[in-house]
C-alpha cells in the first residue's frame, strides 16, 4: 500500500460566513511532489496552514505524519544576517538539522555564504529560505508559492532539484502554483482545488491517461460515455474534454477525432468546470 503524506476527513474551515474549505477529503501519497492548483481564493493557503498546524480547522480532521515545514511567499529571513548566520539560526531552531543538505542546496545555486540576506536578490533569498527549510529535514515540505519571484528558468531548476531531493529521501513536497503553463514536469501528483473543495486529485500520468479531447461536427454531447469536463463550440465544430476509462485510446467513429490532452489543458478544463458538474 502507498504511504500517505497527509489525510483529511470532512475537513472544513470557515472564516465568519465564508467556507474556505468544505467537505475536504483527500489522502495524498508520500514521497511525491504534489502540485496544488487552484484559482485565487480556492483555499490553497488555508489547506497548507491547517496542514502545518498554524491554523485550526473548523470541522473535520487532518492527519499529518512527521515533521512539517511551511514556506510561504514572504521569506522568513533576517536582512542583517549573513547566509551562514541564517543556517546557524536554523540549526538552533530545529532539533533535527542537516547542515550538509542546506549547504549543498546553496552550493547548487551558487549563493555566497558571507553575504547579508538583505543584499541578496529576491530569487537568491528564495534559495536561502529553501536551504533553511530543507536543513530542517521535513517529512512534508509545504511550499505556498515561494517560487513566484523566480524567473521561469530558475523556477524550472528549483523544481528539478526538488524532484531529486524527493527521490533521495522520504520527503513529500506540496507545491502550490498559479502557473498552469509550467506544471508539466513539476509534480507527479495533482491536487486541484475549486471553491474550497477538491475538484480533482490523482497521479498525473494516470489522470492524463483518463482524459481525451474529442473534436467533431457541432453536437450537444460527445459521441462517448464519460464525464464531460469541458465543451467548446463554434458554428460547425464541437470539442469536448471527456474523462473516460480509455482516455486518448477511446475509439470514436469518423469524422470525430480523439486527441490526448496536455496537463495544462486538463487543469484548465477542470478549473473551468462549474461546481456540481464534477464526478
Ligand atoms: N484570515 C482570513 N479571514 C477571512 N477570510 C479569509 C482569510 N484568509 C483567507 N480567507 C478567504 O478564504 C478563501 C480561501 O483563501 P486562501 O488564501 O486559502 O486561497 P488561495 O487558494 O491560497 O488563494 P491565492 O491563490 O489567492 O493565494 C478566500 O475567499 C479568502 O478570501
Automatic annotation (TrEMBL):
Domain ABC transporter: 6-220
GO MF, any single term: ATP binding
Nucleotide-binding as UniProt keyword: yes
Pfam family, one: ABC_tran
Keywords: ATP-binding, Nucleotide-binding, Transport
Gene3D superfamilies, alphabetized: P-loop containing nucleotide triphosphate hydrolases (3.40.50.300)
Protein name, as recorded: ABC transporter ATP-binding protein
Organism: Catenulispora yoronensis
InterPro entries: AAA+_ATPase, ABC_transporter-like_ATP-bd, ABC_Transporter_VariousFunc, P-loop_NTPase
Amino acid at each position: 500500500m502507498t504511504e500517505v503524506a497527509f489525510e483529511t476527513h470532512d475537513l472544513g474551515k470557515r472564516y465568519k460566513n465564508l467556507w474556505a474549505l468544505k467537505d475536504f477529503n483527500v489522502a495524498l501519497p508520500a514521497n511525491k511532489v504534489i502540485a496544488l492548483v487552484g484559482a485565487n481564493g480556492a483555499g490553497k493557503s488555508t489547506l497548507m496552514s491547517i496542514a502545518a498546524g498554524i491554523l485550526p480547522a473548523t470541522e473535520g480532521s487532518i492527519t499529518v505524519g512527521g515533521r512539517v515545514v511551511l514556506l510561504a511567499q514572504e521569506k522568513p529571513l533576517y536582512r542583517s544576517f549573513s547566509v551562514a548566520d541564517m543556517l546557524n539560526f536554523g540549526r538552533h531552531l530545529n532539533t533535527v538539522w542537516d547542515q550538509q543538505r542546506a549547504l549543498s542546496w546553496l552550493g547548487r545555486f551558487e549563493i555566497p555564504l558571507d553575504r547579508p540576506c538583505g543584499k541578496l536578490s529576491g530569487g537568491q533569498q528564495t534559495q536561502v529560505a529553501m536551504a533553511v527549510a530543507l536543513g530542517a529535514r521535513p517529512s512534508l515540505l509545504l511550499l505556498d508559492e515561494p517560487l513566484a519571484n523566480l524567473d521561469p528558468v530558475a523556477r524550472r531548476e528549483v523544481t528539478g532539484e526538488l524532484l531529486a531531493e524527493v527521490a533521495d529521501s522520504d520527503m513529500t513536497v506540496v507545491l502550490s502554483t498559479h502557473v498552469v503553463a509550467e506544471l508539466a514536469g513539476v509534480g507527479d501528483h495533482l491536487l486541484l482545488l475549486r471553491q474550497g473543495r477538491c475538484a480533482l486529485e490523482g497521479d498525473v500520468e494516470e489522470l492524463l491517461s483518463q482524459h481525451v479531447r474529442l473534436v467533431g461536427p457541432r453536437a450537444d454531447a460527445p459521441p462517448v460515455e464519460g464525464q464531460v469536463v469541458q465543451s467548446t463550440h463554434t458554428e460547425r465544430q464541437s470539442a469536448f474534454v471527456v474523462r473516460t476509462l480509455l482516455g486518448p485510446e477511446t475509439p470514436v467513429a469518423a469524422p470525430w477525432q480523439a486527441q490526448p490532452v496536455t496537463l495544462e489543458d486538463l487543469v484548465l478544463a477542470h478549473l473551468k468546470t462549474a461546481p456540481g458538474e464534477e464526478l
